[in-house]
Amino acid sequence: MSLELPASFQTRMQTQLGAAYPAFAQALAQPSPTSIRVNQAKTALPEGLPQVPWSETGFYLSARPSFTLDPLFHGGAYYVQEASSMFLEQALRQCVDLKEPLAVLDLCGAPGGKSTHIASLLSPESLLVANEVIKPRANILAENIQKWGSGNVVVTNNDPSHIGQLTGFFDVMVVDAPCSGEGMFRKDPDAMSEWSEANVKLCSERQRRILMDVWDALKPGGVLIYSTCTYNLEENEENLAWLAKQQDAETLALQLHPDWGVTATELEGMHGYRFYPHQTQGEGFFLAAVRKTDGEEARPYRKSKRPFLVIASKQEKALVQDWLREPKFWEIVKHKETLRALPNAWMLELEQLYENLRVVYGGIELAEVMKNNAKPLPALALSQHLAEDAFPAAEVDLATALKYLHREDVSLEESANGWVLVQFNGVALGWGKKLQNRVNNHYPKEWRIRMSLDEALQPENLAKQFVLGGQ
Ligand SMILES: C[S@@+](CC[C@H](N)C(=O)[O-])C[C@H]1O[C@@H](n2cnc3c(N)ncnc32)[C@H](O)[C@@H]1O
């Protein structure tokens, strides 16, 4: 495969890389590597897969399987993520004390690669706000957050300028900015057809606006991690140098292992890290960690008279009290018919978020309550916090798991009547309700597998190995 790179992009890269340009161009003609990041809260790390060097839970696959046909993918046991972007892990581990309870923002969150990664790295006592400005993309982010199952995450759908009004709210902010996508050319040829000099300029200006809009929401002393998947200086080093002129900001140096092949860069005292496909096994990527050296502290938040979060009644709480592993950790709130669990320690901050932002999803959606009856919701099935004995589980084979995820009728022979957690290889997929002579499939319509399963259900295909060794 050889890519027809835009002429002025080639000229730019020749200037930037000099003698290394032919190796770069050659690497772009190779297929892009496939990698996944494993959710250790749901499954063990695989044995025998080559590791992404800068991530403890990142692994390369030798080929790209049909992830849609792997139930563990739907169960949030792993996330398919480009390897270079997993370098975020190094920035967080090296610049932030992850044992502390932190308020963290992922500003440009959809579809959720970095948000799910951050959620796994934070302590359970932390709070992550995963934001996405484009509504349909915010819904996809919310779906992936529910499947990952962390619980201490709120998904919002706001413009950076709205979030910027939460002065001094966040200890850490990740800005994985929309960019011209030069680093994605071999993976996503559409990025190449949309590339132009004018678009690079437009992206750079938009990134500056985003950084300025959200800056006030970072605490003084807090860390902002800026990343793009593009190579040009305008969207990377030049933006950081510009930021340092506008605000009290300095970059933090990261320790690199020489084997990683990551390139350290510097412009006007601001440091960044570059991933080139001829030097690292991954796509093009840029990252810098910035510390805010001065600025306004958070103002004390005064709850408004009408609370935005309504605490559930004693009777309502009693319906779900045995469903979570550590009930004391959570506060149960009610909105319309829905009961949700939110981390107790963050209720004041959550009140502020619900008052000021458009919250698409928060905490763990537990149940819909009707006439003193609680119907468990999909997010609870996929939650890392579901109490083990709260519901009977039915382990199903691959064919049944796929039919369940396709929203077909399935039979769960062994289980008693009532709500049953459908699971594959020990990973929960969702709810079934067993009645006298049938099972109601409660997998959400919006999440169902849409492709035909005819071919996948052929015995020879069912026998194939899956990504994490299940079958
Ligand atoms: C590089 S993608 C984020 C990928 C994501 N962090 C992940 O790891 O899965 C950039 C995101 O920024 C969003 N975006 C576009 N314009 C924006 C703007 N003006 N302000 C903030 N975000 C924007 C896009 O919708 C897109 O989801």
TrEMBL record:
CDD domains: AdoMet_MTases (cd02440)
Top-level taxonomic group: Bacteria
Upper classification of the organism: Bacteria, Pseudomonadati, Bacteroidota, Cytophagia, Cytophagales
Pfam family, one: Methyltr_RsmB-F
Residue ranges of domain SAM-dependent MTase RsmB/NOP-type in the record: 1-293
Entry keyword set: Cytoplasm, Methyltransferase, RNA-binding, S-adenosyl-L-methionine, Transferase
Signal peptide region: none
Record protein name field: rRNA methyltransferase
Residues the entry annotates as binding S-adenosyl-L-methionine: E132, D159, D176
GO BP field: RNA methylation
Listed GO MF terms: RNA binding; RNA methyltransferase activity
Species annotation: Rufibacter immobilis
Similarity annotation: Belongs to the class I-like SAM-binding methyltransferase superfamily. RsmB/NOP family.
InterPro entries, per the entry: Methyltr_RsmF_N, MeTrfase_RsmB-F_NOP2_cat, MeTrfase_RsmB-F_NOP2_dom, Nol1_Nop2_Fmu_2, RCMT, SAM-dependent_MTases_sf
Active-site feature positions: C229 (nucleophile)
